Amino acid sequence: MFRFAKAAVNITAQGARQVGVRHGSHSAAPNFHEKYGNLLMVSGAGFCVAVWAYVLTQTGITWNMSPVGKVTPRPWKGVGGEEEEE
C-alpha cells in the first residue's frame, strides 16, 4: 500500500510541475478574448436591445398577450346535437 501511495503522490506532483511549465511558457500578450471579450459582450447586448426595441415599437405587430375578454364561449351542445332547455 505504501508503494501505491508513493507512486500516486509522485504522479500528481509530476502533473503539477507539467501544468506549471505549460502555463509559465506562454507569451504575456493578451489573447483575443482577453483583449476584446468585454467589448464584444457589451456591443452584442446593445445590438440585441436595439433590435428588440425596434421590433416592439415600430413594426406594428399586434401582441396578443392575454385572451381574457376577447374569447367568448359558444353555448354548449348536448350529445344529441340539440341545446337543452330547462
From TrEMBL:
Pathway the protein takes part in: Energy metabolism; oxidative phosphorylation
Annotated membrane topology: Single-pass membrane protein
UniProt keyword Cell membrane, yes or no: no
TM spans (from-to): 36-56
InterPro entries: Cyt_c_oxidase_suVIIB, Cyt_c_oxidase_suVIIB_dom_sf
Location, primary (coarse class): mitochondrion
GO biological process: mitochondrial electron transport, cytochrome c to oxygen
Source species, domain of life: Eukaryota
Name of the protein described by the UniProt record: Cytochrome c oxidase subunit 7B, mitochondrial
Organism: Albula goreensis
